[in-house]
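User: For my dataset I need records formatted as: sequence, then structure tokens, nothing else. Please produce one.
Assistant:
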Amino acid sequence: MAHSHSPSSSSHGASAATGGMNLKKIILVGVGSLVTFAVGIIWAYFIWAGQLSAIQEATGRAAPASELGKQEIGIVDQVVFSHDNRLELWKAERAKHLGSYGWVNRAKGVAHMPIEEAMKRVVAAPPDIAGEGVPPAAAPAAPPPAAAVDQNSKEESKKEKGSRKAPKNVENVKADKAGGAP
């Protein structure tokens, strides 16, 4: 016995069109959530207002902010970047310092000079600092005294003459091998 079901003749036709969901329950849950959320917001507002009035009664009214409108509060820059010219002022000040003469510490006698002049001086006469990439200038060697030169040259010539002669024992070995006496 086969039964034919048509959507219009069945008692389940309305629930088949909505996929078996009860829309009334869904709407009631959504509205209930919104009402709960609204009540929570109102309740939090009254708690906040009560706490604020309690704080003001205990400590007094807050003083107006005295640092508002300043370019820098603490370490935080508050200026609009398009109106900020502090970097250009700093660069101009540093360029002026690098291009002029002046005192770094007058009590110790330390002064500064223009950077271009300082670079020219360093290139013209590099510092004699060992291990800094610039070898120290070699000092010219003083000539030895004349008597010492004569004695040294005599000793060197004796050494050269002695090295040209073969030792006696070497000559004896050669003579023995040849079969004769020296």
